[in-house]
Amino acid sequence: MNVEKTGGRLFGSGRCSSLAGPPGAAPMVHRMVEAMSQLQEEKARLQEELAALQERLALRDSDQQATSTQLQNQVENLKEKLISQAQEVSRLRSELGGTDLEKHRDLLMVENERLRQEMRRFEAELQELRAKPVAPCTGCEHSQESAQLRDKLSQLQLEVVENKGMLSELNLEVQQKTDRLAEVELRLKDCLAEKAQEEERLSRRLRDSHETIASLRAQSPPIKYVIKTVEVESSKTKQALSESQARNQHLQEQVAMQRQVLKEMEQQLQSSHQLTAQLRAQIAMYESELERAHGQMLEEMQSLEEDKNRAIEEAFARAQVEMKAVHENLAGVRTNLLTLQPALRTLTNDYNGLKRQVRGFPLLLQEALKSVKAEIGQAIEEVNSNNQELLRKYRRELQLRKKCHNELVRLKGNIRVIARVRPVTKEDGEGPEATNAVTFDADDDSIIHLLHKGKPVSFELDKVFSPRASQQDVFQEVQALITSCIDGFNVCIFAYGQTGAGKTYTMEGTPENPGINQRALQLLFSEVQEKASDWDYTITVSAAEIYNEVLRDLLGQEPQEKLEIRLCPDGSGQLYVPGLTEFRVQSVEDINKVFEFGHTNRTTEFTNLNEHSSRSHALLIVTVRGVDCSTGLRTTGKLNLVDLAGSERVGKSGAEGSRLREAQHINKSLSALGDVIAALRSRQGHVPFRNSKLTYLLQDSLSGDSKTLMVVQVSPVEKNTSETLYSLKFAERVRSVELGPGSRRAELGSWSSQEHLEWEPACQTPQPSARAHSAPSSGTTSRPGSIRRKLQPLGKSRPVPV
Ligand code: ADP
Ligand code: MG
């Protein structure tokens, strides 16, 4: 239509311009008419040509339309095919899908596991069979076992066959699936080929159209215009083509994706094939193992069978031999039996007789039991009465022992004095001052010789311990005293002597080598334990210190506190110390704790403990309370262990202030101790206990039946001879008071003095023998006088011996 319009306008304008020319002559007009007619003809021809061209264009248009619808149809078809292929692929995937293969694989694995377990079970059974000892045949249990095993084996074989069947079925399935996959692949290939052909065809046609267009272009200009129009018109077609090409591209992409999926599926199929192959190999391995086990089992069974047969043969042979022997024995027994028959008869008779007796036996037994019981009862009674008698005797003996012990102690004297000489120590130094000045009598252990200022002096005491004496030796000597404490006696043990002479060593000792204190408590514990069946004992311990006439509790919470000694308010005349701590001790560990506590108290109180302890009296008071379980009798014994302050004299002019005060207090208390002992020995009506805290505190342990032991500590070296001399004199005097009543009385006058006197050595003119000098038989009436004559007042700072 557009073409027509355009053409009309073009030719119209041309006609107008030609009509506007100048009006001419007739030939001119004629020529013009001819030209007009020519033109008319030309126009008609051209119009025809145009119509033809238009027709052809319309044809071409319709052709193109048809081609595009065809292409569209083809695209639709392809799409449908693709969808169906995708469906087919998904179907195949669901059929052949990894899950199915996995299921198969799982099934096979489970089957494998089961087979493996079976295998293990069979192996265990086989092991058991092997482990069983090859016993000689005792029946047909092996054959039963082997039959069972055979059954199991056949069962297993059946299972193996079944499994094989299953495997082949699975294989078949896999094969089918593979075939189908190949088919699908083929179909896909066909589709692709078809598509390629179609593409080819379409592109050919496109080429043709292009060519046609080109040829049309090559025609005349009016046609060119037409072509241009056609080109314009065909752009739409081109667009449709490009769209369809894009769709095609998209479809190709999809096909590629499908191919990818297919490839993956193939891979999966391959892996499942591999798995199947592996499983097959495993099954084959298991089968071979099963076969091997079967073979082994058969061999085993064979050997068992052989063993069984051999054992049967051996047993048979043995049985035959035994049988023979038994036959022989039987023959012997038969002959014996013949001879035994008469004996049997007599035995039967005996048996009958015995039977009768047995029938009557319970009665007899009862009677016998009765009489035996009566006898036993009587015996028990006798034993009981014997026991009672023995107990009575034992108590009597105990009493006697106590008496004897007391007698012994009494004979030894209520106040005993022993000396202990310590060894020369490093502290004594070297040179002439540190030379030994003490010697002993080889035949008499109660004599001690001292070389003082070049003159020998001898003393006699109850016992003298040389430096060689051990702690145990010394303790042995005081042991009897300590045991008497359990019997209710009060005991005092004093260590007397100058500082450094060994008082603390003897009383306390060292942790490795304890002294009297610890040993005494140990002894008390063991004695108390021995008597535990009859007596109930309680042992308590107190520790106190007297310094400058002040009494302090070493076990108290307030060691600084001054304690007072009071009379019991019950009117018994007994003394007591309010606030003095008393610890109950039951073991050595307890004692150690108490000692440690006391020591700590003392250490924290005083900076220079050594110095302080040499100027104070340390008391350990052990009280033993007992109750006789049978009689209810109560006893109380007190053991006072006293480490006295140093007895050395303080220089007359040297001491001042506190040192002088200390010396005065020590002097006073040691003098008081001497006075008290003297008064006690002389049985004076008045004993000056109250003159010092020490004697006042120990009053009840010094008076009455009490027993006292004084250990005089002696330093052996030359430089100490002066102090040693005084200590020994003090000791000898204490001891010498303890003579017969006459002599005692005679001595009273001499020793009643309480003056604080310094003694001159008693033996300024050496005596031929210490015994002659100090023994009771050496004329006691004259001795006090002579000693008195020798007394020289030297100062007041020295403790006065009794
Ligand atoms: P005191 O208490 O009289 O001042 P010590 O007991 O402290 O004297 O003794 C002084 C020193 O002598 C200590 O070192 C002690 O170990 C030692 N000593 C004392 N006696 C003996 C002894 N028998 N054996 C060994 N060493 C002793
Ligand atoms: Mg000491």
From TrEMBL:
<dbReference type="GO" id="GO:0008017">
    <property type="term" value="F:microtubule binding"/>
</dbReference>
<dbReference type="GO" id="GO:0005871">
    <property type="term" value="C:kinesin complex"/>
</dbReference>
<protein>
    <recommendedName>
        <fullName>Kinesin-like protein</fullName>
    </recommendedName>
</protein>
<dbReference type="InterPro" id="IPR001752">
    <property type="entry name" value="Kinesin_motor_dom"/>
</dbReference>
<comment type="similarity">
    <text>Belongs to the TRAFAC class myosin-kinesin ATPase superfamily. Kinesin family.</text>
</comment>
<dbReference type="InterPro" id="IPR036961">
    <property type="entry name" value="Kinesin_motor_dom_sf"/>
</dbReference>
<feature type="coiled-coil region">
    <location>
        <begin position="29"/>
        <end position="132"/>
    </location>
</feature>
<feature type="coiled-coil region">
    <location>
        <begin position="167"/>
        <end position="201"/>
    </location>
</feature>
<dbReference type="GO" id="GO:0005813">
    <property type="term" value="C:centrosome"/>
</dbReference>
<dbReference type="InterPro" id="IPR027417">
    <property type="entry name" value="P-loop_NTPase"/>
</dbReference>
<keyword id="KW-0597">Phosphoprotein</keyword>
<keyword id="KW-0175">Coiled coil</keyword>
<keyword id="KW-0965">Cell junction</keyword>
<keyword id="KW-0968">Cytoplasmic vesicle</keyword>
<dbReference type="InterPro" id="IPR027640">
    <property type="entry name" value="Kinesin-like_fam"/>
</dbReference>
<feature type="region of interest" description="Disordered">
    <location>
        <begin position="1"/>
        <end position="23"/>
    </location>
</feature>
<keyword id="KW-0067">ATP-binding</keyword>
<comment type="function">
    <text>Minus-end microtubule-dependent motor protein. Involved in apically targeted transport. Required for zonula adherens maintenance.</text>
</comment>
<dbReference type="GO" id="GO:0005874">
    <property type="term" value="C:microtubule"/>
</dbReference>
<keyword id="KW-0206">Cytoskeleton</keyword>
<keyword id="KW-0963">Cytoplasm</keyword>
<feature type="coiled-coil region">
    <location>
        <begin position="248"/>
        <end position="314"/>
    </location>
</feature>
<feature type="region of interest" description="Disordered">
    <location>
        <begin position="743"/>
        <end position="802"/>
    </location>
</feature>
<keyword id="KW-0547">Nucleotide-binding</keyword>
<keyword id="KW-0472">Membrane</keyword>
<feature type="binding site">
    <location>
        <begin position="497"/>
        <end position="504"/>
    </location>
    <ligand>
        <name>ATP</name>
    </ligand>
</feature>
<feature type="coiled-coil region">
    <location>
        <begin position="369"/>
        <end position="400"/>
    </location>
</feature>
<dbReference type="GO" id="GO:0007018">
    <property type="term" value="P:microtubule-based movement"/>
</dbReference>
<dbReference type="GO" id="GO:0005912">
    <property type="term" value="C:adherens junction"/>
</dbReference>
<dbReference type="GO" id="GO:0030659">
    <property type="term" value="C:cytoplasmic vesicle membrane"/>
</dbReference>
<dbReference type="Pfam" id="PF00225">
    <property type="entry name" value="Kinesin"/>
</dbReference>
<feature type="compositionally biased region" description="Polar residues">
    <location>
        <begin position="775"/>
        <end position="784"/>
    </location>
</feature>
<keyword id="KW-0493">Microtubule</keyword>
<dbReference type="GO" id="GO:0003777">
    <property type="term" value="F:microtubule motor activity"/>
</dbReference>
<dbReference type="InterPro" id="IPR019821">
    <property type="entry name" value="Kinesin_motor_CS"/>
</dbReference>
<keyword id="KW-0505">Motor protein</keyword>
<feature type="domain" description="Kinesin motor">
    <location>
        <begin position="414"/>
        <end position="737"/>
    </location>
</feature>
<dbReference type="GO" id="GO:0005524">
    <property type="term" value="F:ATP binding"/>
</dbReference>
